[in-house]
Amino acid sequence: MSNMDDFKPVELDNGTKDSIPKPEQKPENKSEDKCNLYHQDETSDQRQKMVSQEEMVYPNMYSTQYYLRKFFVCRPGALDQAIEDMNALIAQKEENGRALSFWLLTEVDHWNNEKERIVAITEKSLVICKYDFMMLASQQVQCIPLNYIDKICHGPFTVPPKSLAKREGNGLRIYWDKLRDVSFLSLWNPWSTDLPYTSFTEHPVKNANERFATICELEAFTAQLIQAVKVAHEQQPVAGRANGAVILKQPIPIEAYTGLMAFIGNRNKLGYSLARGNVGF
């Protein structure tokens, strides 16, 4: 028989006896919480600075890769082949002289259409070439004697006040026969080439890499062209024409009012050798 007397009830004082002791709670320290928040903010600021520094060292490559893959001029060897072909064309005519520099620019016609061009400044001529960077062949070449250039304007593009066309950025316009008036038929013909001037702006691939940033820079091209024109006028003045070219810094007007054709063409880059899905240029 078990001894039941060994088991006796024990009374608890309101549940305080034999209860599990609670850990000590430290008093709230608001200053410490603020300090922690300050450190967190400081850490986040440091991370943001580190990210911004990484972006400076390693820039966003999406735009660069886009240019390299879409425009045929950015394909390896395409630009070098174009310059080599232009050198051969320039050497065929003695009146051009030696090639001084090559540039990749965008020609803007009188109807605001953009056209990809390789431009060469030689000792005696300004050579403008329409080059197919997909087939690697020149399609059209225009040679303008430097001593015939009588006016060079550089500044922002402008359009008529009520025009639907748009053209932003700076450009360069070169005149070689300012005394000849442009006929009404030539001015309103979008395919006319009988104009005594041409306009240029920077090529879209200027930001692709360092080489394109140099060869597409409009200011550098303008400075070298002005110097070459000055030398050409001094060495080979043309009888009956003004000796020297007028250099002006003023807006460049684009006489386009509707601009629908230019809007569609420029938006889809129809004037460039460009990869377009499964269909080339």
List keywords for this structure.
7 helices; nine-stranded mixed sheet; globular; 31% helix; disordered N terminus; 281 residues; 9 strands; alpha+beta
Topology:
Blueprint: H1 30-57, H2 62-70, H3 78-91, E1 99-108, E2 114-122, E3 125-132, E4 137-145, E5 151-158, E6 170-175, H4 184-187, E7 197-202, H5 210-215, H6 218-235, E8 246-249, E9 252-253, H7 260-267
Description:
- The chain is an alpha+beta fold and 281 residues long.
- It is built from seven helices and nine strands.
- The chain has helices at 30-57, 62-70, 78-91, 184-187, 210-215, 218-235, 260-267, and strands at residues 99-108, 114-122, 125-132, 137-145, 151-158, 170-175, 197-202, 246-249, 252-253.
- A hairpin with a 2-residue loop joins strand 2 and strand 3 (125-132).
- It is globular and about 55 Å long.
- It starts with 29 loop residues before the first helix and ends in a 14-residue tail after the last helix.
- The model is unreliable at 1-5, 12-23, 34-44 and 49-62 (pLDDT under 50).
User: Runs with pLDDT <50, length 5+?
Assistant: 1-5, 12-23, 34-44, 49-62
The SS-based structural class is: alpha+beta
- The helix/strand series, from N terminus to C terminus, equals HHHEEEEEEHEHHEEH
Largest sheet: 9 strands, mixed
Based on CA atoms alone, the radius of gyration comes out at: 35 Å
How would you briefly describe this protein structure?
The chain has 281 residues and is an alpha+beta fold. The chain is 31% helix and 22% strand.
